[in-house]
Specification:
CATH topology of the largest domain in chain A: Phenylalanyl-tRNA Synthetase, Chain B, domain 3
CATH class of the largest domain in chain B: Alpha Beta
Strand content of chain B: 15-25%
Structural class of chain B: alpha+beta
Number of strands of chain B: 18
CATH class of the largest domain in chain A: Alpha Beta
CATH architecture of the largest domain in chain A: 3-Layer(bba) Sandwich
CATH superfamily of the largest domain in chain A: Phenylalanyl-trna Synthetase, Chain B, domain 3
CATH topology of the largest domain in chain B: BirA Bifunctional Protein, domain 2
Number of strands of chain A: 26
Radius of gyration of chain B: 43 Å
Largest interface: A-B, 89 and 99 residues
Structural class of chain A: alpha+beta
CATH superfamily of the largest domain in chain B: Bira Bifunctional Protein, Domain 2
Number of helices of chain B: 22
Shape of chain B: flat
Strand content of chain A: 25-35%
Oligomer: heterodimer
Helix content of chain A: 25-40%
Number of helices of chain A: 15
Helix content of chain B: 25-40%
CATH architecture of the largest domain in chain B: 2-Layer Sandwich
Radius of gyration of chain A: 33 Å
Largest sheet of chain B: 7 strands, mixed
Chain lengths: 545, 511
């Protein structure tokens, strides 16, 4: 989950009320925001879907409603500015969408700067999918001269000085040399042209989604912002701008809209109008398990910062704030009603759903195998199913085919095991220093490739056991394997066979109705030594399916 | 206790030791007594313990020091000391150049250095530097040494024949011994030798007359059937002496926790189901209404597969309904608003959430009531450390019935933790991509005196249910199983769940 840090002092200022730190954390947790305080700093864990809470302004706005300090739909005044953005036809196949806005009356304090940087970073990482779906630029309003053009440039086209870099670079050089270019370059590297924002005097604002120019940098003297969001996803572009600008409005700054002229249409951004949703009180009560009157639900909705446009019998018409990017269905409203009611006030109930518990057949057999093998004095071990071909095949002197991982984390875990024996031998290797003899077993899954199945592979539950030490060999392990089969109620046949992992003449297959169920034998010396063991090992492995 | 009672209580071995000591004139080493009595040393020592406790004998301990050749010493005993070999070569080869002489004597580089050092120290040769070369000439002492062994060589020979007690060496060998020890050709080993001596009480006891009785340690079939058990004396055991511990074969500790949880869920009427290790992205993600560009589906979170390369999709009508839910929404939802791609659905992954199994079950059992659970391994793209594993157990359950509510969900969670013996639980809002409303439950662990987040739950979203043909609410909960197991087993490093140290497995008590 994304996390943000906020200053307790700044947060109380945003709330407009001093709330004790412990109470604050407790209430935030009941709002679904996990809070951990350390001195003045509070670390907040934000749910993936609540991108409107990625700033202290956003969290304070929600908490104000929850605490009853300020309820209902937040109203944001917005005036049209004279700034326009002209969109060039060439962006259509490159990075088609843009939304922009203006903020004036800005007083830049350390808190504002920290919050603005943080919210951009967090939105880029989450809603904007690492700047692919959307990327944000904030500029000093006084350094840009409208109209602003959203256009494209060739990779070795227009040179400008990118932020935090002392000299002019071409767009292609930025991708190669600038840290942000290296981090996000892959989004545009293969495109024929790169996106560019440039003002009427030819001053470059930025090369989205990579970097702003030094010329339009926000400084401590900045009195107003020009903000843009460009991207591949129109909804994300608009939501990001709305979240950013309404957050700044919570600081008391003034918002102004911008005219965006596409070749074929003209819009004004941001659109701060609420989203209209219908909520049935019956559905809300039914889902949560409450019996609230529509007016009571309306009151709760207001605490969750919804506006209530109308109550018509059972149906409430709610106005969701424009910055909410997570509402997709009535159930999302219902969860907000549950949160507003208070999870700490919900009494657990237990319904009578009449069912009979039932063990899965394979688990029942596995349990029985465990009882038999522990009864024989074997110790159960539990190992990873992830392994590698060296352990599975090379050390076993065997060939085979296994499920292969395309993106392994380490060389030790590149495949899924298709046998339990290598796992047992690895356990014995880890226990070389413990006094002998050892008798161990595992009941667990292996995976075999099988084209006939839906996923191309299937789990197979197996039981395997191994003994290490002098004087306990084939006779003993075969007796143990047969004891297991006998207790499982299986009638079997023993046939001599050959297998590269076992000593010739000391390996047999256990056959049930003509099919090999498993193998039992003394391991081949090279296998023993390969696992760095120094004493004879005998083992069996059988299929429980 | 008077002497006759003491004698009465002696075991056969103890009597044998006493008699042997008498035959050896009242004083002998443990080894000698053992030989005479026909007993091994350990048995003699056990008997000595009792006999000395009763004051019948006295034990004197003597530290002795043995001179033993080191491997290097053995080599020189065989081939001669390096300086001796050099001297012989110097006398016979006619050259003066040190390197050539050493080569003639077949000395290795390190041995040559040793030889030169000792030629000088023993005064056998004179050294001269000329044109970067060391030249040697035999001294008078060297000439004399050619025909005579030095004391250190005599000692080397002596020790190669037999290791010796330092005390027993002739007086003129003391100095050569120091030299050889200094040259690390001989090492000294300390040993404690015990000598036994009869006390006056011991002598009195023997005067009373001691008859060696037949004593047996084990009751046998033969003794029982022949009736001889009445005649022989069964040795008394030291019943309070601690013996070596033995351990039963046991179920693995983590499996014990799984079994306990499974028991609880079965009692609550849940049916156990099983998941697939290799799963399709369709069931692992798409069917759970996780958008195809959702961050959790990125390469850094789940383990994708290169073999098998593809999975088969379920029946087309289901795929279409799921695709529609993603693209433009179903059941009043707005959907994610993107173009669904069935190539992505067909990609295989290692199952990253047990929900894949429960949702598969729902698809084939859309009618109520449904109450199933699954305890299975899931896989993540994680580097293994004390907090993270790439594969671990997840426990999950679902309940489907008309009219189920969020409060019912809380009821199930509460009942599970109460049955786990953890009476305190509290709820707060949570977030999971496929449930709404969602809830996190913190449970109080008295042994840790801490509230810990171990349960997550929620009601499946309609966008997930409707394509499966499910028309009733479904409660779903999951347990952070590893965390629960670690607390139950008292371990702090998650890797210990799979460490399988046999000593640890033996000593850990069953839960």
């Amino acid at each position: 989950m994304p996390s943000i840090t906020v200053s307790y002092r700044d947060f109380c200022k945003l709330l407009g009320k001093r709330v004790k730190q412990s109470k604050l954390c407790e209430r935030l947790s009941m709002l679904g925001v996990e809070a951990e305080a350390a001195g003045d700093e509070i670390k907040l864990e934000i749910a993936h879907n609540r991108t409107d809470l990625l700033s202290p302004e956003g969290v304070a706005r929600a908490l104000k409603g929850f605490l009853g300090i300020e309820v209902g739909l937040p109203r944001y005044e917005i005036r049209p500015s004279k700034v326009t953005v002209e969109v060039d036809l060439s962006v259509k196949s490159i990075r088609p969408y843009i939304a922009a806005g203006v903020v004036t009356g800005v007083k830049l304090t350390d808190d504002v700067v920290a919050s603005l940087m943080q919210v951009q970073e967090k939105l880029h990482a989450s809603l904007c999918r690492k700047r692919r779906k959307g990327s944000i630029g904030v500029y000093d309003l006084d350094t840009v001269t409208p109209p602003i053009r959203y256009t494209t440039t060739l990779p070795d086209g227009l040179r400008f000085v990118p932020l935090d870099f002392g000299r002019e670079l071409t767009p292609a050089q930025i991708l190669r040399e600038h840290p942000k270019g290296m981090e996000y370059g892959s989004i545009i590297r293969d495109l024929p042209r790169y996106p560019l924002l440039i003002d009427s005097r030819g001053v470059v604002l930025s090369m989205p989604p990579i970097i702003n120019s030094e010329d339009t940098r926000v400084t401590s003297k900045t009195k107003g912002f020009f903000i843009d969001v460009t991207g591949l996803d129109e909804r994300v572009v608009n939501k990001s701008l709305t979240i950013l600008m309404t957050g700044l409005a919570e600081r008391g700054f003034r918002l102004e809209s911008v005219a965006v002229k596409y070749p074929n249409k003209r819009i004004r951004t941001p659109n701060l109008g609420p989203q209209k949703w219908c909520l049935s009180a019956r559905n809300a009560n039914g889902f949560i398990g409450l019996d609230l009157k529509p007016v009571a639900i309306a009151k709760i909705a207001k605490r969750m910062r919804y506006g209530v446009a109308n109550i018509g019998g059972d149906v409430l018409t709610l106005l969701a704030p424009p910055y909410r990017a997570d509402i997709m269905h009535e159930v999302d409203l219902i969860e907000d009603i549950a949160i507003g009611y208070g999870y700490d006030r919900l009494e657990p109930t237990l319904p009578k759903v009449l069912t009979t518990g039932e063990r899965s057949p394979i688990e029942r057999i596995s349990d029985k195998a465990r009882r038999v093998l522990t009864g024989l004095g074997f110790m159960e071990v539990m190992t990873y199913t992830l392994t590698n071909p060296h352990v599975s095949f090379e050390l076993m002197r065997a060939k085979g085919d296994a499920v292969e991982i395309a993106n392994p984390v380490s060389e030790d875990y590149t495949t899924v095991r298709n046998s339990l024996l290598p796992s047992l031998l690895s356990v014995l290797r880890e226990n070389r220093r413990n006094p002998l003899p050892h008798q161990i077993f595992e009941v667990g899954d292996v995976v075999v490739l099988d084209e006939k199945t839906e996923t191309g592979a299937r789990n197979v539950r197996r039981a395997a056991a191994a003994v290490i030490g002098e004087g306990i060999g084939f006779t003993y392990i075969k007796a143990a394997a047969e004891a297991l089969l006998r207790e499982l109620g299986i009638s079997w046949e023993v046939r001599a066979t050959w297998h590269p992992s076992f000593l010739d003449g000391r390996v047999a297959e256990l056959v049930v109705r003509g099919k090999r169920l498993g193998l039992v034998g003394e391991l081949y010396p090279e296998v023993i030594l390969g696992f760095e063991l120094e004493h004879p090992v005998a083992a069996f492995e059988i299929d429980l399916e | 206790m008077d002497i006759s009672t003491v004698v009465e209580g002696l075991s056969a071995q103890e009597k044998k030791v006493l008699l042997a000591l008498q035959q050896l004139e009242g004083k002998a080493s443990v080894a000698d007594v053992g030989r005479r009595a026909g007993l091994d040393q350990a048995t003699v020592m056990r008997a000595v313990l009792t006999l000395s406790e009763h004051g019948l004998i006295e034990v004197f301990e003597k530290k002795i020091s043995k001179a033993i050749l080191t491997p290097e010493g053995w080599g020189y005993a065989r081939d001669g000391l390096p300086e001796r070999r050099m001297l012989v070569a110097l006398a016979s080869c006619g050259s003066e150049v040190a390197d050539e002489i050493a080569a003639r004597a077949a000395l290795k580089e390190d041995q040559k250095q040793i030889a030169l050092t000792w030629l000088k120290r023993k005064g056998w040769a004179e050294f001269l530097r000329r044109e970067e070369k060391t030249l040697l000439s035999i001294t008078e002492g060297g000439g004399a040494a050619l025909s005579q062994k030095t004391p250190d060589e005599t000692l080397l020979e002596l020790l190669s024949a037999q290791e010796r007690n330092v005390d027993e060496l002739p007086a003129d060998m003391k100095e050569p011994l120091r030299t050889l020890v200094g040259r690390k050709l001989v090492r000294l080993e300390e040993e404690t030798q015990r000598e036994l001596k009869l006390t006056t009480i011991g002598i009195q006891a023997l005067e009373l007359g001691i008859e060696p009785t037949e004593e047996v340690s084990e009751l046998t079939h033969g003794l029982l059937m022949s009736g001889r058990w009445q005649e022989v004396k069964l040795r008394r055991y030291d019943v309070v002496a601690p013996g070596a511990p033995i351990y039963p074969g046991k179920i693995h500790p983590q499996q014990q926790v799984i079994d306990e949880l499974r028991e609880i869920l079965l009692e609550m009427g849940f049916v156990e189901i099983r998941g697939k290790i290799v799963e399709s992205e369709f069931w692992n993600f798409d069917a759970l209404f996780q958008a195809q560009d959702h961050p959790a589906r990125e390469i850094h979170d789940s383990l994708s597969l290169s073999k098998p390369e593809r999975t088969k999709l379920p029946q087309l009508v289901l795929v279409k309904r799921v695709a529609a839910a993603h693209e433009h929404g179903v059941a009043g939802s707005k959907g994610w608003g993107y173009k669904f791609n069935t190539d992505i659905s067909r990609r295989p992954v290692l199952c990253s959430q047990t929900t894949a199994a429960t949702v598969r079950y729902l698809a084939s059992h859309p009618e109520p009531p449904v109450k199933v659970f699954c305890i299975d391994r899931v896989y993540r793209h994680e580097k293994i450390d004390y907090k993270h594993l790439a594969e671990f157990y997840q426990a999950e359950g679902i309940v489907m019935d008309p009219g189920l509510t969020l409060r019912d969900m809380l009821g199930y969670l509460k009942q599970i933790v109460v049955k786990l013996g953890l009476p305190k639980i509290r709820f707060r809002p949570g977030y999971f991509p496929y449930t709404e409303p969602s809830v996190e439950a913190d449970v109080y662990f008295p042994e840790k005196r801490e509230w810990l987040e171990v349960l997550g739950a929620g009601m499946f979203r309609p966008e997930l249910l409707r394509p499966l043909g499910v028309r009733h609410p479904v409660l779903a909960w999951g347990i952070g199983f590893s965390r629960l197991a670690m607390i139950k087993l008292g371990i702090d490093d998650i890797r210990d769940l799979y460490r399988n140290d046999i000593e640890w497995l033996q000593k850990r008590r069953m839960i």
